Amino acid sequence: MQKLLIAFFIITIVSCNSSKKPDGVLTQSQLSALLVDIYLAESRLESMSVAKDSSIRFFIPFEEKLLKAKGIPDSVLKKTYSYYLANPKELEQVYDVVIDTLVVREQRIGKRPPIEKTIPKVPVQ
Predict the structure, then answer these.
(1) SS3 label, residue 50
(2) What end-to-end distance do the CA atoms of the chain give, in Å?
(3) Crossing angle (nearest 10°) for helices 88-108 and 2-14
(4) Do 31 and 84 contact (CB within 8 A), yes or no?
(5) DSSP string for residues in 66-84
(6) For the chain, which terminus, N or C, has the lower number of CB atoms within 10 Å?
(7) Distance of CA 23 to CAs 53, 80, 89, 125, Å?
(8) Biggest distance spanned by C-alpha atoms of the chain
(9) Phi and psi at residue 120, to the nearest 5°
(10) For residue 38, how many C-alpha atoms fall within 13 Å in the half-sphere facing its CB?
(11) Where are the alpha helices (DSSP H) in the chain?
């Protein structure tokens, strides 16, 4: 799954911008919410003591169920990915929201101290 994300980012960096969003493309907020759900599902799978090959068998049906529950056809997802890959600035905004959301959720469950506490203080001379 990490290789897929790396490829996704490389394609994003290389992509060129287009000016108009076509019909049938998820909004930034819709895509952000979907990606948060996907990353949370991946996190749950990583916490299970299952081989990576086996975890894919669990993840694919979950992803299909998630898309169906959100009413997102496969064709819309593909069109959305294509659009945002061609518009890296918009994709960056989506991922800013995704990262912020995941950090806040992690802080709420107490796995990580607030960001201010993780940055070391540098004495002023």
Answers:
(1) coil
(2) 46
(3) 140
(4) yes
(5) HHHHHT--HHHHHHHHHHH
(6) C
(7) 36, 10, 19, 57
(8) 59
(9) -65, 145
(10) 19
(11) 2-14, 28-47, 52-70, 74-86, 88-108, 115-118
Q: Where are the domains of the chain?
A: 2-16+24-118
Q: What angle do CA 39, 42, 44 make, to 5 degrees?
A: 115
The pTM of the full predicted model, rounded to 2 decimals, is: 0.67
For the record, the structure tokens of 73 come out as 């056809």
Mean pLDDT of 90-99: 94
> What residue type is 39 in one-letter code?
Y
Instruction: Tell me the C-alpha to C-alpha distance, in Å, between residue 66 and each of 20, 76, 93.
Output: 28, 14, 23
**Integer Cα distance of 13 and 87 in angstroms:** 9
Helix (H, G, I), strand (E, B) or coil at 103: helix
Side chain identity, residue 61: P
pLDDT band at 37 (very low <50, low <70, confident <90, very high): very high
Under the banding of pLDDT at 50, 70 and 90, the label for residue 117 is: very low
Report the alpha-carbon distance of residue 24 to residue 40 in Å, rounded: 25
